[in-house]
Write a structure and sequence with these properties.
heterodimer; A: 360 residues; mainly alpha; two-stranded antiparallel sheet; B: 418 residues; 12 helices; 15 strands; 19% strand
């Protein structure tokens, strides 16, 4: 099988799954569509995280900062200027006097995420291991507190409301598909392969002339852009947002999605994100009483979180490299015959599943 | 066979994703309870048909808003049952459909959508405007009358939600009025100087302190020291130290019954400071008090009703007894807003000949001036979609026990800047 065909199949799997979920969502009722849109937006967030974490092997606890920046930038810029004086009285004049279309706000959100990633990534990407993980966590804290207390750039501790709800099922699906294409496209480039080499063996990669800092920074900025875009999609899906929604809970659940699916492949990121998102949603519904045709599930309050945690724990214990084993999508029976001229099968597959640099 | 196992696990994962996704088309229960049986068939624009009037409540029954959200809802259901027993609203029954949002924003939004798609004519939301914004926006987008029983800010209305906000109302006491009533209560008790401690976590707590400050100054009082904190930011110990150094007649504390409230009281009393503490409705009740009775002493607050069996209104005492018999004894006076909300909705529907059209109901409500309900009177204005002008109960907590200390009214709601 040619490399191009392998690549096409590997990309087809995640895209097909995203599109199927989008179609299922379109066929569902209004209230349930919100769950599908939410799952697709979370998938976009996880894909953004995968671009950096999956390819570099460096765990980042700070990617939700980019989501937060994207969400608040897109939200503040699309609230009608006429209501800003009462809704956000302390806003900088530049933000208070200008509004843009939701589509433009998504582009600006992506740009803001990328810019922020560049600024903080320049020093942070010199770190590795636990220091990098803690550094990104510090970035999350700083971002959260800036957004929570600095009312010149947003609503502070209050809810940002009146954001146009333009993230429809179609928009959410397109957003996730575009992110998947970007992520897969990046990992197939020379830069993506060099970064993966640093993940497998940083010393050997550096010895071979790979600039680890530069490669990591490039991926960090790209993942910041995708995470910023996801933040824009998120705020336009919800119509409102608070700083608490883009903080620790979202950080840990999206990291769990990535790890459960398999953090070394795009396929793993997509499967993990959708699976955990739907599990979380429907276990929550089950606490209110969920009719499943033949039987009715009624969980005690709080049990959904326990079950979700237990499922994630079981997957991590039994399958440390995630459900997909960190491999890209493949069609059973269509195994590529490796030749000496082609990269080995493991590399094409997204590589083996080495431990991440940080497990904090 | 690692490859086979990976394939099987991946296939299982995908199957689970699709199965869970397909659950979206499965019919979910959208009601934990309702006051009567029968299918809901109303819509927001239905006029005077004979189906039930469905009030869809997207509220918390799990998280920290549970003690705030549930008592008004329980009391509202009793009021609806009473109206139904008396023949309903021109023959139509009132039904409640309730979904527990767990104050998760996505679930809150989905719950509101589910309730309105399921036929609710009025949307009932959680008692905090920030937490309920996802549901409020759904209600307003569908042009449905959207009510909160006890949001205490002026944010329910155009101020927060623009033109669409004309359909949003709250039956809590607006902070501009409540803060002014606190100031009157302080003056009545002979306190002429106050420290002011404001929690930045909520618009309500900030507004009620600001309103107190303005009204207190108008009544001849003087604020000595102002401190702010945000619940959960671990700065309360520093606030206690600063307040302890500023000896005023009273320490006015505007916060909620989170972990910082007992920390403040315990910390201050632990330093030997016996200055009276005054607060708004959000610190009503004794459930949050420190165990030490010497610490839980000389605390005063204004609220809707006394839950200590000594409310001056016999109807209120009777309702509390009824709630106790139903196993839903109220812990704060906030329960009173539930029946008033139901009564106001019914009044607006009757005013409009049975229509549940949100715009018409909202127009009626905006014109309410001292409208009698089963438990008091309520007023709204085009500027304030949250109740003002109520008679407040002053509760005195001495030695860990609460009792009615009197009643008070605001001279007038104050105007806040910004």
């Amino acid at each position: 099988m040619s490399r191009a065909r392998t690549a096409a199949i590997q990309l087809l799997g995640p895209i097909a799954l995203i599109v199927i979920v989008g179609l299922l969502g379109s066929a569902s009722s209004g209230a349930h569509q919100i769950d599908f849109v939410n799952a697709l937006v979370q998938t976009t967030i996880v894909i953004g995280m995968y671009i950096f974490i999956g390819n570099s092997g460096v765990i980042s606890f700070g990617h939700i900062s980019f989501v937060a920046i994207g969400a608040f930038v897109a939200g503040v810029l699309t609230i009608p200027s006429v209501v800003k004086p009462t809704l956000l009285p302390a806003l900088f004049p530049l933000l208070a006097n200008h509004s843009v279309s939701p589509f433009a706000s998504l582009l600006i959100a992506a740009g803001a995420g990328a810019l922020f990633a560049l600024v903080i990534g320049a020093p942070l990407m010199r770190l590795g291991g636990l220091a990098a993980g803690i550094g990104t966590l510090a970035v999350l804290e700083i971002t959260h507190n800036l957004l929570r207390y600095w009312e010149k750039i947003g609503p502070g501790a209050r809810t940002l409301s009146l954001v146009p709800t333009t993230t429809t099922m179609r928009v959410a699906t397109i957003g996730a598909v575009v992110s998947a294409v970007v992520a897969y496209g990046y990992q197939r480039t020379r830069a993506g392969r060099l970064l993966r080499a640093t993940r497998e063996d940083p010393a050997a990669a550096a010895g071979a002339g790979v600039r680890i800092h530069g490669q990591r920074l490039g991926a960090f900025v790209l993942s910041g852009a995708v995470a910023g875009l996801a933040g824009g999609l998120l705020v336009h899906a919800l119509g409102s947002i608070t700083t608490e929604q883009v903080y620790l809970d979202l950080t840990f659940v999206t990291l769990a999605m990535l790890v459960v699916g398999g953090m070394n492949s795009l396929w793993g990121a997509v499967v993990g994100a959708l699976l955990i998102s739907f599990l979380d949603t429907y276990l929550g519904y089950a606490e209110n009483g969920l009719d499943l045709g033949l039987f009715r599930v009624n969980l005690p309050d709080g049990l959904s979180t326990v079950i979700l945690g237990a499922i994630m724990l079981a997957i991590l214990v039994l399958r440390p490299s995630g459900l997909t084993g960190g491999r890209e999508f493949r069609i059973p029976g269509l195994r590529r015959r490796a030749t000496p001229a082609q990269p080995d099968a493991e590399e094409e597959d997204g590589g083996a599943a080495p431990a991440a640099e940080t497990s904090a | 066979m690692p490859g086979t196992r990976t394939g099987a696990l991946t296939a299982a994962g995908i199957a689970a994703v699709l199965a869970l996704g397909a659950c979206g088309s499965a019919k979910k229960s959208d009601s934990s309870a309702s006051t009567s049986s029968g299918a809901a068939s109303t819509s927001a624009t239905t006029t005077a048909d004979k189906g039930p009037i469905v009030i869809g409540a997207a509220v918390d029954d799990t998280n920290f808003m549970r003690p705030i959200d549930q008592p008004p809802l329980a009391a509202a259901r009793l009021e609806a049952a009473r109206i139904n027993a008396a023949g309903g609203v021109d023959g139509r029954r009132i039904e409640f459909k309730v979904i527990n949002t767990q104050i998760d924003p996505e679930r809150t939004r989905a719950a509101a959508t589910q309730l309105l798609d399921g036929g609710a004519s009025v949307l009932w939301v959680t008692c905090d405007v920030d937490l309920s914004t996802p549901s409020i926006q759904v209600g307003l987008a569908k042009k449905v009358l959207t009510v909160a029983p006890c949001i205490g800010t002026d944010q329910m209305g155009a101020r927060r939600f623009g033109d669409a906000g004309k359909l949003a109302f709250s039956f809590g006491n607006v902070a501009q009025d409540e803060g002014a009533a606190m100031a009157r209560a302080a003056i009545d008790k002979g306190w002429r100087t106050s420290n002011l401690i404001s929690d930045r976590a909520l618009v309500y707590t900030q507004n009620v302190c600001e309103a107190f400050s303005i009204a207190f100054a108008r009544l001849g009082g003087r604020v000595l020291d102002r401190e702010t904190f945000t619940t959960g930011d671990n700065t309360i110990s520093g606030v206690v130290s600063k307040i302890n150094k500023s000896q005023a007649d009273v320490d006015t504390l505007c916060t909620t019954a989170g972990r910082d409230l007992p920390a403040f009281v315990t910390g201050l009393r632990g330093l030997g400071n016996r200055t009276p503490i005054l607060g708004p409705w959000s610190i009503d009740g004794t459930y949050w008090l420190p165990k030490s009775t010497s610490a839980a002493d000389d605390i005063h607050l204004v609220t809707f009703a006394s839950v200590f069996a000594d409310d001056p209104d016999p109807k209120v005492r009777s309702l509390i007894d009824e709630m106790k018999r139903a196993g839903q004894a109220p812990t704060t006076g906030g329960f009173l807003t539930g029946p008033e909300t139901v009564d106001a909705i019914v009044q607006a529907i009757r005013d409009n000949g049975g229509s549940t059209d949100g715009t018409k109901l909202a127009a009626s409500m905006e014109g309410f001036r001292d409208v009698r309900t089963s438990l008091g009177t309520i007023s709204f204005s085009p500027q304030l979609h949250t109740v003002f002008g109520r008679e407040y109960r002053v509760i005195d907590i001495m030695g860990g026990k609460g009792k009615l200390g009197g009643t008070v009214r605001a001279d007038a709601p104050v105007t806040l800047g910004g």
